[in-house]
């Protein structure tokens, strides 16, 4: 019981009066577009360049609303003497949004980041068949996919960046040790040069050997660490 | 001035007020109620903040089919909306909005009697509708209306009688001529009783048990469609105008104000009426509907004793001061 009889009535009046002075919460939707967060489940976009037709999305879909057709194509060997490769080519990729329940499993399961959520939601149709969005329409939705939200201030860095950084660090360390070794070798060489008779001939013989071993000669420097290291100093390392 | 022309002009003005003010209050209710609930209310009709929403509603009602149920008492059924609406028009004629002959439709010597009697007749419309509809929900609504009328007419009359005693006259302009500012605290209990009882008589929330749309689907109005239903709604809003106007005249000093006494009296009347109308809307938004037994209990155990106490107080003060 309230201490003063009727104070509850006054409180009720105060609540409505206070609400009247506040800003209304009405969303004037067709006039003002809603401000949706980047991960809003509006529609699914297909980044078909990434799709390998692995069919994981179609198989995991609880509603079976993803239709994929594909065929295999043979890719000629990239290099003379190589083996022919076969590649999946996407013929049809369609999502029936009249069946879709927006669970997002297809997007989670895609191993190649070919499916994305887009916040667009205004694709109502008067014919239910129009709700089956074919490949080109799904590709169009990709342009509406927003950039992923920024990470939290102290968050762990994304796996991709961490892996790339690790690789880069490894390469840098390797290059550093090689450069050190090369510097040592060079110092040794300059010390020995007056004594030894023909060092240039021996080094050029060493240099030609790897070029003969690899069939695609241009691949070698990219695989090899520190291509800018002078070949003359590579031999002793 | 020519007498006939004078009468015609007065009636025309009263009629215009009768048509405009209820719509203004209805639109205000749309907007105030919306904002009290954190909404915007109508925004499209008419372009600017939905000012023409009620015009659009009227057009919609006019287009609808006018259905009379097969088993209904046809004549009575069709007459009921007019019976509900017209009394308020008649009451409006007698309410003075400013000092002098020119600011009142017609000076009636027994003003309070006339006003209370005619307002009571307005409720007959709901009774007729409830009985003639041949529908059990309508009948329930009609019976509840009758019970409510019986319960609340008494405190309303007693409260009005208190003012008549204080002024020594039953003429509405006469009461206002005798008005002094200290009447407001003196008659405040009577004012509250009158206002609450008037709300109940209009079947406005929280006293809308007879129409209770969620329980007996609009009671007496269940079978009504189109324009006749619109007339019932209009009667409700005309009733708000009349009740607020009467409360202003009887208890709040009508055209008397702190300043601007000459020429601007009618502004005071309208201003006080508007504030009271806002309170009516405010109460509707704030409070849930009362149960039927709570309605009766409030009338008989609270309002009637309060009104009697007010009459006693008025009598004592009157005897002491004279």
TrEMBL record, chain A:
Residues at which [4Fe-4S] cluster 2 binds: 61, 100, 103, 106
Q: Which residues bind [4Fe-4S] cluster 1?
A: 51, 54, 57, 110
**Domain 4Fe-4S ferredoxin-type residue range list:** 42-71, 91-120
Name the chemical reaction catalysed here. a quinone + NADH + 5 H(+)(in) = a quinol + NAD(+) + 4 H(+)(out)
The family database entries (Gene3D superfamilies) matched by this protein are listed as: 3.30.70.3270
Membrane topology (UniProt)? Peripheral membrane protein
Identify the EC number(s): 7.1.1.-
Q: Where is this region: Disordered?
A: 167-237
The note on the cofactor says: Binds 2 [4Fe-4S] clusters per subunit.
Checking InterPro entries in the record gives:
4Fe4S_Fe-S-bd, 4Fe4S_Fe_S_CS, NADH_quinone_OxRdtase_chainI
Where is it chiefly localized?
membrane
- Top enzyme category: translocase
Q: Which Pfam families match?
A: Fer4
Q: What cofactors does this protein use? A: [4Fe-4S] cluster
Q: Where in the cell is it found?
A: Cell membrane
Alphabetic keyword roster: 4Fe-4S, Cell membrane, Iron, Iron-sulfur, Membrane, Metal-binding, NAD, Quinone, Repeat, Translocase, Ubiquinone
Low complexity bias locations: 170-207
Q: Which family does it belong to?
A: Belongs to the complex I 23 kDa subunit family.
Quaternary data? NDH-1 is composed of 14 different subunits. Subunits NuoA, H, J, K, L, M, N constitute the membrane sector of the complex.
Primary role: NDH-1 shuttles electrons from NADH, via FMN and iron-sulfur (Fe-S) centers, to quinones in the respiratory chain. The immediate electron acceptor for the enzyme in this species is believed to be ubiquinone. Couples the redox reaction to proton translocation (for every two electrons transferred, four hydrogen ions are translocated across the cytoplasmic membrane), and thus conserves the redox energy in a proton gradient.
The protein here is known as NADH-quinone oxidoreductase subunit I
Q: Could you tell me which species this protein originates from? A: Streptomyces yaizuensis
Q: What is the lineage of its organism?
A: Bacteria, Bacillati, Actinomycetota, Actinomycetes, Kitasatosporales
UniProtKB/TrEMBL annotation, chain B:
Q: What family is it from?
A: Belongs to the complex I subunit 1 family.
Q: Which domain of life is it from?
A: Bacteria
- What Enzyme Commission number(s) does the record list for this chain? 7.1.1.-
Q: What protein am I looking at?
A: NADH-quinone oxidoreductase subunit H
Organism listed in the record: Streptomyces yaizuensis
Entry annotated with the keyword NAD: yes
Q: Which UniProt keywords apply?
A: Cell membrane, Membrane, NAD, Quinone, Translocase, Transmembrane, Transmembrane helix, Ubiquinone
- Can you say where in the cell this protein is located? Cell membrane; Membrane
**Quaternary structure annotation from Swiss-Prot or TrEMBL:** NDH-1 is composed of 14 different subunits. Subunits NuoA, H, J, K, L, M, N constitute the membrane sector of the complex.
Q: Where are the transmembrane segments?
A: 7-26, 79-98, 110-133, 154-176, 182-200, 229-253, 265-286, 298-320
Catalytic reaction(s) noted: a quinone + NADH + 5 H(+)(in) = a quinol + NAD(+) + 4 H(+)(out)
Q: Which coarse location class describes where this protein primarily resides?
A: membrane
Which InterPro entries is this protein grouped with?
NADH_UbQ_OxRdtase_su1/FPO (IPR001694)
Which gene produces this protein? Answer: nuoH
